[in-house]
Amino acid sequence: MTDAEKFSIKTRYVFFTMADWLAFSDALVEAYPQARYNIRPTHKIGPDRPAAIWERYLMDVPRPGKHDAVGSDKIIMAFDPDWQPEYQMFRFDNDPPVVIRWGREKHVPMPYVMFRRYAAPDAGELANATSFSHSEINYFFAAEDKPAAAEARRFFKLLGKFCTNRNQAYYRLPSFELTRTEAKGSWYWFGHDAIRWVRDNPKRTLNYMEDTRWGIRACTEEEMAALATQLPPAQET
Q1: Which among 27, 42, 192, 211 would be 20 to 30 A from 180, CA to CA?
Q2: What is the pLDDT of residue 14?
């Protein structure tokens, strides 16, 4: 990798309901009016060249289905208003029927944002659910690019208005045995509506990577103080 190709990534793991995504998307339009959004398949199989359909509003990008092309869970936020992806066709004749695969030639110019594992459960989906999983927000920028690094900080400062990584309790499931708490600095950021949803029912949790063996709940500062007395004793090393 050359110096020109080196890059940095800043990531947030967020738990957002549809209401959280809508609020954040509105803020993105105001803060970055030139930005465009597009699903970014890493490849596509079929005779037709993939078409880049850009949206000006994040929530206008269709939510990916379970059987969509690989990479369809990645949504790109491009800041360059003129950039277009290019695809090259590869033909595989080894086994009938013939397989035509399209691979992306051009990388997105940095800086750009990738929304991965884009989950946006709406009120109907959440009504009978007891958990939902996270999404990733990744900000890519050229290494040693100080203005781009500053812009990444501005982006995540904006994101921070819609979520928090404070006051979280971690439980082993399905027993709901408390294992630890995080007063601040957690890797996981809860949207404001996600916090409301999880607190509406004591059996609801937020689950990283859909792992049902453990879950996280949002707490008040008073609840955090009370939970501290319930933590298991620290293991001696």
Answers
A1: 192
A2: 96
Angle between helices 18-31 and 146-159 (to 10 degrees): 140
How confident is the model over 138-193, as pLDDT tens digits? 999 998 899 999 999 999 999 999 999 999 999 999 999 999 999 999 999 999 99
Cβ pair 13, 152 in contact under 8 A: no
Digit-coded pLDDT (tens) for 9-53: 999 999 999 999 999 999 999 999 999 998 665 566 777 777 777
Confidence of residue 72 (pLDDT cuts 50, 70, 90): low
Question: Whole-angstrom Cα distance, residue 220 to residue 199?
Answer: 10
What region, left, alpha or beta, does residue 209 occupy, with left being phi > 0 and alpha being psi -120 to 50 degrees?
A: left
∠77-49-41 over CA atoms, to 5°? 35
What span, in angstroms and rounded, lies between the C-alpha atoms of 16 and 22?
9
Q: What is the amino acid identity at position 82?
A: D
Global model pTM greater than 0.90: no
Question: How far is Cα 145 from Cα 131, in angstroms, rounded to an integer?
Answer: 39
One-letter identity of residue 56: R
b (16+ CB within 10 A) / e for 212-228: eeebbbbbeeeebeebe
Closest CA to 205 of 236, 180, 167, 174: 174
Q: Which residues pair with 78 in a beta bridge?
A: 36, 112
In this structure, the dihedral spanned by the alpha carbons of residues 194, 200, 204 and 208, taken in order and rounded to 10 degrees, is 10
